[in-house]
Amino acid sequence: MPEAGDNPDSLMSLCTVFCLKNLRRTMCYTGERNKLCLRPDVFLPSEICDKLVNVYMDLVYTDSNFEAQDGFFQLFSDPRSTRLTRLQLRDLVRDKDVEAIKKQVGKLSVTRGLKSCILGLYATLLKSDFLLRLLNLGGMQAVVDVEALLKPLPALTSLDLSGVYLPRPAFLAQWRDRLASLVLYNVDLSEELISTVVQMSRLRHLDISRENQRNSKFKMTRKILTSIVQSLGNLVSLDISGHIMLDNCTVPQFEDAMGRPSIEPSKSSIYPFQELKRPLQFLGLYNTTLCNVTHIPAYKVTGSKNEEQVLNAIEAYTESRPELAHRAINQLFDIARIQHCSQLLRALQLVIAALKCHKYDKSIQVTGSAALFYLTNTEYRNEQSVRLRRQVIEVVLNGMEQYQEVTVQRNCCLTLCNFSIPEELEFQYHRVNLLLLKILEPARQDESIQRIAVHLCNALVCQVDNDHKEAVGKMGFVKTMLNLIQKKLQDRMCDQVMEFSWSALWNITDETPDNCQMFLNCNGMDLFLDCLQEFPDKQELHRNMLGLLGNVAEVRALRPQLLTSQFITVFSNLLDSKADGIEVSYNACGVLSHIMFDGPDVWSVEDPERDWVMDKMWDAIQSWDVTSRRNINYRSFEPILRLLPQGISPVSQHWATWALFNLVSVYPSKYCPLLVKEGGVALLEKVLELDSSQPETKDMARYTHTHTHTHTHTLSQNMLCVHHW
């Protein structure tokens, strides 16, 4: 069962999003001059129209892959086929969009200010016979005469004047018998304004909060707060966040500490709220000292005392007050980092919503992405559903697309590291690779971001199918990694970025000839030689480079490019390497084994001679410990198996047989089934039949064959026993 609050999207929501992303395939057609038109047989009731427009606004605002449709609002211009009742119109709505829906205005409630086109909409309203009930003028410029603007609207029941300059607030008294909701956030309060507000006996929601206490001449006294509570008997929601309390509004500390926390007004630790008839549904105390008391008569309180108050603040302020949401998310970040987040699901959902709603707000993106890193780490992983983790990934990728700023990029990349890669990123595979490659494009990137991004790139091309690798190669992956290596060479620095870049190239060229070709075309061999010369003692680097060249050598058409005196000499010398156990020597021998497999006729190198190189290969193989544990991972034995049934290069056959001997001996559970699956047992039998096979090779082939048969037979018997039981 899905967790509470983490249920699948409703069918209505899924259908709405599908229709909006496929308008011309569902409810619309293309008219003259490519105009978007509603199909003539379509009639959409208000609940569907409202949903379509509001979800459309959300998608335009939060989904980086969703493109706004020119003419979308014209679809709702005819009230005979469409009905609009309640919309959330954002700043990105244009004048012509408002003009398109003006015929619907008799049934429209505006719940968000439009700044640029609100006056045009207002003019349309006045020309109609509609009595507007809900109006948000938050953020209107001071030059607008709000009193004159509102006077012709006697039916208002909800009014938001956030940040609006009110030189003569007494005019608001004309709605004292009608207003149920009044928002005066960041409005400069005065005695005249307060005396007007307390006359509004029908108010159920009052917000007189501030962003902060700076530059505020008004002080919230116990007398004022008591007056509000006593005068507004219908109040269920009150926000006084950000105010300085001038005198002592709270009970003594010893009294506050008595008993368990209670929401009963009579037990309130805040004196004025003892006058309440019942607990408030909501009480905003964010950025005030009042949030720290024990007994607060409200079901939901915003503040910074504990996780519950912080989450309430994020929930309450995200949409319209990003500056407060930013602070609250920062506090949540501290809770998740230092303490423990007990409401993980809710916390994640709120941060995701904030990041979606404010994808252009840098402060939200910085704090939100940082919080996600701690909320998705191993400690919380078991509490998260697949759907929720996918939502985190999507919002992180949105942030990476929008911001090239160092902190956001670092936070987003670090958060992605909390996921199983590539499995959990598979559904966004193309997109995440493009974004990471874009991060790595700049000539001089932040070192920490570069290191994390290369690590992610490496993980994304490890253990994925060849189609994925080829697709990423075409994005410029190989060129990007080589550019990073080139920059590190110029700096004479062999760090994690250098090593991860070679490792990523090793992974992306595995059984992918096109990517191997790209490596050669981009002068990869020159970089290999330069790195070898500049960093002769870097074992991990050597292992990664030789692993990559092993992939190149597996491609028959590319082997002639490796058959030069310089390269053969280098590979031969590396046979003696003891770096990283046997890995460098093993990989060098693998490269030479594939080259030798093409036969003496193609050997165009005079120095060193082919026989001399083969002798060195025999000596190297004889020196390896067959019980060596390996720092390598084979997805397929096919490149090795092709070297078995042949007599043209016995040393290549010997290397391949040793490789199988070692792997099935040390890791039988993993590699015995793989050998059987890919037909390796039959090929080992051919090795035993060939006269050209060396005795030492046959001995290893015989052991590998027997060991594989014994292991798989025992495994089958165990499975039968378990099944029978």
**Radius of gyration of CA atoms, rounded to a whole number:** 35 Å
Q: Which structural class is indicated by helix and strand composition?
A: mainly alpha
Number of strands: 11
Mean pLDDT: 87
| Helix content class | 40-55%
How much beta, percentage-wise? under 5%
* Largest sheet report: 7 strands, parallel
Number of helical regions:
30
Question: Which word captures the global form?
Answer: elongated
Distance between the termini: 31 Å
Strand line-up of the largest beta sheet:
5-6-7-8-9-10-11
Stretches where pLDDT is under 50 for at least 5 consecutive residues are 1-5, 106-121, 123-131, 718-725
Descriptive overview:
Helices cover 50% and strands 5% of the residues. The chain has 725 residues and is mainly alpha-helical. The strands form 3 sheets. A 7-stranded parallel sheet has the order 5-6-7-8-9-10-11. The two termini are 31 Å apart. The longest helix has 30 residues, at 695-724.
